[in-house]
Amino acid sequence: MSLLELSDVHTFIEQFHILEGVSVEVPEGGVVALLGRNGAGKTTTLKTILGLTPARSGSVVFDGEEITQRRTFDIAAMGIGYVPEHRAIFADLSVEENLRIAERSSGDLERREDLIFGLFPDLRRLIHLPGTDLSGGQQQMLAVARALVPENRLLLIDEPSEGLAPVLIEAMIEAISRLSATTTVLLVEQNFIVASRLGQSYVIIEEGRSVQAGAMADLVDDAETIQRYLGV
Amino acid sequence: MSDSKQHRQLEAPGTSRSRRIADAIGRNRARTAVLAVLLFLFLAAMAGLESDQWFSTIMQGLSVGALVFLVASGFQLIFGLMDVLNLAHAEIFMLGAYVGWTAYTRFDTFIDVLIPLLLVAAPFALLPLWRALGTRLAAVGRWGRAAAWGLLVSGGVLIVLSITKFPLVIWDAEDFARTPVNMSVQIDLGMLEPLTPDSFGWPMVLAVVVLFCGGAALALGLTTLRSHALPGSVTRRNLTGMVGMIVAAVVLHFVKEPLNDWIFGLSTTWRFFLAMGIAVAVGAALGALIEVVLIRPLYDRPIFTLLITLGVGYVLIEMAREVWGRPEFTMARPAAFNGTGEGCPAEGLGGFFSGCATLVVFGSRLRVYNEGFIVVMGILVLVGVSMLLKRTRIGMTIRAGVEDPEMVEALGINVRRLFTQVFALGSGLAALGGVLAAPSIGLSTEMGALFLLTAIVALAIGGLTSFPGAAAGALLIGLLQQIIIRLGQTGIDLPFLSEPFKPSPTVVPAASIILMVIVLLVLPAGLFGRGSR
Question: Would the ipTM clear 0.90, i.e. be above it?
């Protein structure tokens, strides 16, 4: 049984029909990459899973439970971590507080300290800085670290490489591939090179529909499909 | 042991404190300059005053500032987190004063009203049950909705029928002599025997059961009209809550006479503290109720929330008029701040606990209640709420929610419940302001409006999104107003004028606005606001 299953999900934002039938299957363990052009509906798919933009029809099943109509905090508390595209670091909170707020029971941060600072050793040095004082790359690390504080079973990571310098992208790939050893990841990534290095399987979304899915290894050699759905 | 180790691990290499302060000043040059100029102006104004006046002027400024702060802080917390401009805030301030007055002078009436209210509220504790039933009823369609309205109406009828059978002291807002205020005054003067309510009009059990059923019908009707995706299930906590409220109501009924005797035997000081607690609790409950019932469905429509809070304000004013029946009345100061005679006014700050109404410090006469107690309470609230925001988890969640409620929700935190809690907190602070203001400025249905207006100006000065800004703005406004009032009495020597210049009292509100305009021209986000720098 897969950890997360979306079947024929339709989502509206106000009157706009954004998702017109998305089906995604995320097996337990590893990384699934959501691919597609800008505005195809990848971010909305993540938000629909979390109930931030609830699905109007179709179903979202996490860990065998129907979560389509549940409220966001309820869904997240089932063990889903979210790293949004705009990172959403709380500027008014220190780095430590940004991590603490993600705790679901007190002491989560201490329990996961080794994992988090092992992946992102820089954060330990920045722990008392306010969230505003971080660079873009540091904010991205903090956003991922925040999703790791509680023991989440699934991470939804949106565009982790966006706006990062190449050396930082490399570090981020390294971090995500290491954490995917213990946690399932659903990744949205515009940069196909990054996505192909991280993902074991992929789902392509085109104009609000999931059009193709399969193993990443097959897609890498399929120049025609890449050109058709992902080429500029 | 392990705790301290972990703490050390999280420690960053220290930056020196003075360096950080210098950095902060460098980053906030405009802010520092404005504060320096304001400080200079205040000192200049002080220089124009006799030495025996400046201290009392400052303390009066602090007193007004403290009351403005109590209104502004709650308003700011609500606006900062939920972007709701709660115009009913002024009326919650007013109701805080009225409820406080009632608990202070007529505790018996307060208990009489509390008992049936507890019984109506008790079925609401079983919310998951009503949600489950309501979802089923709503699924029926049009007839389900009709049934919901039927339930609401019949619930209302049952409650009204049953409440009148409860032994209440009947006030009569139409008959001037029997309005609650006049009755209380006459009772206090010994002109009227305290009215004791008769026994139940029905058998007590019947009255209790009918009232409970009325509450249940209301609860089911309301939950049917608002569809809930997740009914949940009744937990032990729900049950204990309901049983607790019923038991409390019944016990209160049987002990109310000795309880009243005991309360009225206490000194007015203790009764005042009790009244403060009750006013805060009622204010918070009212705020939570307004949020859940009226504001929650309208978060997507800011104009609607603005209008609905405006309307709620007017409704509350009319309700207060109807219930208390007299537009203006006063509240006696509690005994600890009202002493006269031997040894009064006391000398020095130590006289705060002397029981005198006034004391003399640095040659200035201070009223202990106005310039002492209110200021102390203002500082306590400032420190308390700051600690809450800085040190507690809920405070951290509030600060994060101000920036990005969606992300906070995505971390698994129930933001809607947080909204209700903050609404209750803000309303409780407003009610505290009201009950504190009552012995000083008296009660009237309009008492809140003026404070809210001043508070909004103070918030604009301090920065609408900043809690310290609310304190700073309120402090500045309070000091400014009192200094101008005092200068109006003593006059100030200005260059190029042969006579001392005496600002007239009408300058006072204008001066606050001018201060606001100047601050906003230099710092569009206010002194401590974030945003455009």
Answer: yes
